[in-house]
Amino acid sequence: GQMVACNSYRNPALLAKMASTVDVLSHGRLDFGIGAGWYEQEYRAYGYDFPDGPTRLRQLRDAVQIIRAMWTQEEATFEGKFAQVRGAINQPKGVQKPHIPLLIGGAGEQVTLKLVAQYGDACNIGHLTNEGFARKFAIIKQHCENVGRDYNEIHRTVLLSCAIAETDAEAVAKSVPYQRTIPADQMRQRALVGTPDAIRKRLLEVEQTGAQEVIIFLQDSAQLETVRMFAEECMK
Q: Secondary structure of 178-207 in the HEC alphabet?
């Protein structure tokens, strides 16, 4: 499945039903993620409304509750400000039990990470320094304590762009496309850039922040030798 679907693009009840069908068809292999949405250009390109940030977050709060209801209730009922279900039937609900795991993507400390603590089975936080990841996980833990949730129930994932090569100079050259979202002077701290030895070291540091899974983005993944290099050198 996609890493994080944009909540704004589909009715959450319909999205939950689509996810259930995919989970059945794949024999319980769906990874389901959702986030509030952020990429204004894509909204505009498809003619979607682009509400302000607080509104998108309120819409996400309604959506995650509806999705969980669709996956757990015989007839889902929820009255939110932005979305509602009134006796909605979703059968079959999916293969994974007690329901399809719900990953919430984003790093907003006051709203998004609180939603993770309240409703998420997993989180995804992207492109931060080791200190940044550690801070976000500490905030999730505090939100969990506030709502009476076991922090260890939440699977903690991070997203990192990766530029791997035999030499450091080649890796730095590969990292240039990532400068659209990561400043060049922060690239080594917020991405995986370097030789296999350097990347293995950084992955160990990321694990020590509390991350349990790293999702990587390889700009040159169509070049299979790059994929093989990462698999053989960094995943053993």
A: HHHCCCHHHHHHHCEEECHHHHHHHHHHHH
Q: What are phi and psi of 168, to 5 degrees?
A: -65, -40
Q: Which residue has the higher pLDDT, 167 or 223?
A: 167
**DSSP type of residue 35:** E
Cβ neighbours of residue 166 closer than 8 Å, sequence gap 6 or more: 195, 229
Give the C-alpha separation, 138 to 179, whole Å.
Answer: 28
Q: Taking the CB of residue 91, how many other CB atoms lie within 10 A of it?
A: 7
At residue 223, the pLDDT reads 85
SS3 36: coil
CA distance 38 to 12: 17
Other C-beta atoms closer than 10 Å to the C-beta of 46 total 9
Q: Which residues does residue 35 pair with via DSSP β-bridges, in sequence order?
A: 6
Q: How crowded is residue 17: how many other Cβ atoms within 10 Å of its Cβ?
A: 20
Check whether the bond before 177 is cis (ω within 30° of 0): no
Residue 150 · residue 216 · CB < 8 Å: no
pLDDT in tens, 176-220: 999 988 999 999 999 999 999 999 999 999 999 999 999 999 998
Out of 2-6, 71-75, 107-111, 126-130, pick the least confident: 2-6
Q: How far is the C-alpha of 164 from the C-alpha of 160, rounded, in Å?
A: 12
Q: What is the mean pLDDT of residues 108-131?
A: 97
CA distance 26 to 32: 13
List the Cα angle 34/92/58 in 5-degree steps: 25
